[in-house]
Structure formats: C-alpha cells, structure tokens
Amino acid sequence: MGFLPQLLTAVALLTVAQLGLVQGQASALWGLLLLLAPYVVGRLSRRSMLAGHFRRASLLGRLLGLWSVVGFGVFVLGTNWIALLRQWSGSSLDPESWPELTLIPAFAPFVILQVLCIDAEARVNTRPGVGRSAARGLALRMFLSTVTPLAVYLGVLGVVGAVPLARTLVEEVDLYHALFLTLLLVGMSLGVPHLIANAWRTRPLEPGPTSEILGRVAERAGFTCREVRVWDTGNLIANAAIVGVGRRRLVLLSDALLQTLGPRELASVYGHEIGHAKCRHVSIFLAWSLGFFLAADLLAPASELWGSVFLAGALGTWILCFGWLSRRSELEADLYSLNLLGDSEALASALGQVGQRMSDRGGWRHFSASIRMGFLASVSTDPEVGRRFKRRMRVGAWLGAGLLAVTGALELRQMGEAYGPQRTRADLALGRYPAAIARAAKLDGEWSELRALTQLVASLAERGPVGEEQLERALTEDLNRKEWVRAGGWAALLALRGSAPATDFLRLMELVDEGAGGGREAESLEARLPPSWKVPH
Question: Do the domain assignments include residue 426?
C-alpha cells in the first residue's frame, strides 16, 4: 500500500493529460531535469541533515518521496507527450475509450521516476554496501507489488478487447461491464496473497516457541489463516501485515519485528492483525469505496470533460477519506488486541519499539505510535472511551453498508432500464441485425428513434457496400435530417462503418454536414459519438 497514493495520483494526472486540459511543448531539457531532480533533491536533503537543518532536510525528504508524481505531472502536463504517443502509435488515448496497450509507455515516465526516487532515497538514508542494496531492493519489491495489479488489469482488458463479442458487451452494456469488474475484483482479491508472498520475499514461519505462542493467540480468538510467514526486509522494517480474505489470508511478520519484540509484544501485535480480520476492515473499506464511487458515478456531470474532472476530484477525495478511515481502523485493531489479551503494557511496548525505529512518524494509513499509545492509555484509564469508539466505528460500518446498498440499488435499476437499448446497440455493433430488430421491437415509446434506426441499419446492411447515392437516399428518404441529428446518428454510422469502405463512411459524415446546413451541428453530431467510434481525420 506504500506506493498506492502515488500510483492513483499518476492515473489522475494521466487522465487530465489525455483530456488535453494542459499541454506544453516537448523538450529534451525537460526530461533531463526531471531525471536528475531526485538526486539533486536527495543530495540537498543529506547536506541539510548533516548541517543540522533538520526541518529543511525533512521537507526535502518529503519532496523526494513525492517527486515521482510531481515530476510525472510536470512531464505529462507540461509537454506534448500524449500528443506524441498518439502520433507514433495511432491510438486515440481517450480516457473514455477502451484502454489500449499504448497506456504502458504513457505510464513509463512515472515508473522510471519512481525507480530513480527509490534509488535516490536509498543513497540518502543508507551507507554504500549491503544495507543500501537491501533498502533499494525492498522498496522496489513493494513498488512492484503495487503496480502489478494495474498491469494485470490492463492485460485482462487487452485480452477481452481482442474478442469482439466480449469487448462489445462489456463496452456497451452496463450490466456486463459491472459483472466484468466484479469478477476482476474477486480474482485480484484471491490473487493478492500469492502476489505479496512472492513479491515481498517471504518464507514460512518455522515451528518453535514463537509459532506456538501465535497459535495459542489464534485459538483464543477463533482465528484461522492459510499461513504465518516471515517477511525478509534485511532487518530494515519492523512491521506486520495481514493480506487476503477468508481462509486464504496470510499474516506477515517482518524479520526486524521478530528480532526486536519479546513473546508478549509479538502476541499483542498478532492480536492486532487478527483484529483487522475480526473487525472486517477489508469488507468495510470495500463497502465504503464501492459506495463512494457508485455515488460519484451517479452524480457525475453528463459532459465528458466535466465528468472526467469530477471523477478525478472524486478520486482525490477518496484517497483522503480512505486514509482517515484506515487510521481509525488501526486504533480499532489495537483495541481488539487489548480486549483479547488484556495486556496493554505489552501492546504499548510493541508500539513504542516499532515507533522508535520509524522515528514515531504517522502516515497516510497509520497514526504515529505516540498517538496510538495515548489512545491505549485513555482506554485503560476509562474503558468507556473504548466502548464509545467501538460504537462509532460500528455506526461507520453500517453507514458504509447502507451507502453501498442504496447506490448499488440505484445503479442496478439504471442498468436494468438501460439493458434493452444497450443490448440492441451491442447487437448493431456486432452486426447481429435480426437480434437487434427483435430487441428493438420490445422497446417502449421512449426508444422509438432507436427502433427506426435499427430498421434503417438492417436494411442498409443488406444492400452490401454502401455507395454515395445510397447514402444520400438514406438521408432523404429513409430518415429525415431532423430525426437523424436528434437521434445522434450513432447507430447507423456504426453499422455503415462495418459494411462500407472508410471513404464511404467519411462521405456520410460530409453528407450529414451538408444536410445539417453547416459545421456546427455536424460537429455536435460527431461529438455525440462514443470516442472509439469516431472517424479518424
């Protein structure tokens, strides 16, 4: 999770660049400065620290940690990188269109900058030798585990996109799109433990006193998992984690944690990780996240531009809200461990030792050790503090479930209402004209134009390659100009593109332009087409 905010921010920045909201001129100097910046910032941070200017060193260190997204934003928004990619590849790189393989080189500057930042941070914080190599390797493995799900997602989209039937159904029918995303999410959730176990360099915890202690804690809590594993970090990180869902969960204990803590402290930390499972934090995070983004989708403006801007803002808001909820979930897991084992001294000692190694710094997902220890002290002094906190967390969980239930029901209702027309469009796109006509006949009066266009498309497709005279006749006899412009013309245009040469399709756009009496309505017509259907000029 360490690199997740940077990755999500990079996705948002690339979306803004694809929309063309900000664009400069490419320059070799831009790229050189961005590549050298991590080392310059790192060197300045180290000099400031050695000179005793710790505040300045801390600020420069934070800038170095964020430079991958800062530099990526400067690059994609300050150069014509996206325009060059479109020119080289011939891809549209439209955020509303089906994801393309060109997205891989589009993200390449972010990946390169992040790798350079990891190397620069290792040079600042460690001495040359084994320690520096271990720090660099650890960070690279964690970054790999963060970007792998995105790579898998793009790979699956590439496979689905290569099958016309699957792509069309997912692209045109909201219900199939939701089913596809659900299956993808479930598959990734099941694969995360395997990914983490391999990417983070872990090994099974050997039988012995430690495994016996943890086994007794799990038995007391009624907790089961697939395995407890040792996370080899080169003794750089003292931390623990739980990944996965159900019986496929893995609990990871870092090598430094096992060497630093005693039996009571390890038992308390293990109780904390069990608390995440028992409090169903993964389910709560998922409910809030899905409910939030479904609500954003329902409230997003219809305009392609403002809709994308709105969703980018929603993504930033989600990042902040997720961090807020995650920090409090850590407190709830602490509270569970305290209630399970009743050993506040051991848990506070574990937090203190881990916090000392991390300079007692909080983060996006965790409060600092001192804040968590203060919370435990308050609960030990007044148990009502813990009970009130638990009630608030329970209310938050129910609110998340309620948000998901309401937004999910609204989305399903919209999907159900749109299924008939959307499936008709999909059949048109696939050239299944008899099926499209049969579906269109069942549509109510609201979709009368779609029924008329379906009949027109089927009749034109039966004529074979469409010439200029047939196109003119279609516009003047089969469907008048007013109905054509009002309906958007997208269904007939799509079908004609499949049965007519590209020159005929371009000629059809010209005829619409002439028939509409000028360029403005013709431009609005083409603007109303889905991006993947627009004619290249």
Answer: no
Q: Is the domain of 400 the same as that of 280?
A: yes
Domain identity same for 157 and 222: no
Calculate the dihedral angle through the C-alpha atoms of 282, 284, 288, 293, rounding to the nearest 10 degrees. 30
Which position has the token pair 């050695």? 50
Angle at 424 between CA 419 and CA 426, to 5 degrees: 95
Give which of 464, 460, 436 is closest to 450, Cα–Cα. 436
The first and second tokens of residue 368, run together, are: 């600092």
Return d(Cα 262, Cα 240) in angstroms, integer. 14
Q: Which residues on adjacent β-strands are paired with residue 202?
A: 231
Pairing of β 227-231 and β 240-243: unpaired
Lowest mean pLDDT among 138-142, 384-388, 521-525: 521-525
C-alpha angle with apex 325: 323 to 330, nearest 5 degrees? 95
Beta bridge partners of 204: 229
- Provide CB contacts within 8 A for 256, sequence distance 6+: 233, 235, 236, 237, 238, 239, 357
Out of 419, 452, 477, pick the residue that ends a domain: 419
What pLDDT score does 34 carry? Answer: 83
Q: What tens digit of pLDDT does each residue of 227-236 get? A: 899 998 888 8
Give me the phi and psi of 461, to 5 degrees please: -65, -30
Domain assignment of residue 424, yes or no: no
Domain check: are 465 and 411 in the same one? no
State the average pLDDT over residues 477-492. Answer: 44
Looking at the fold, whether 179 and 190 belong to one and the same domain comes out as yes
Out of 134, 161, 188, pick the residue that ends a domain: 161
In a domain, 504, yes or no: yes
Question: Which range of residues forms the domain containing residue 183?
Answer: 163-419
What gap in Å lies between CA 35 and CA 109, rounded to an integer? 9
Alpha carbons 124 and 48: distance in angstroms, whole number: 11
Per-residue pLDDT reduced to its tens digit, 252-270: 999 889 988 889 999 999 9
Please give the tally of structural domains in the chain: 3
Supply angle C-alpha 60, 62, 65, rounded to 5. Answer: 110
Residue with the two structure tokens 């360029």: 519
Asked whether residue 310 carries a pLDDT value surpassing 90, the answer given is no
Please count the other Cβ atoms lying within 10 Å of the Cβ belonging to residue 242: 23
Tokens of 94: 């439209």
Structure tokens at 169: 């159904």
Please give the radius of gyration of the chain, using alpha carbons only, rounded to the nearest integer. Answer: 28
| Residues forming a β-bridge with 251 | 228, 242
Q: What residues pair up with 228 in beta bridges, in sequence order? A: 251
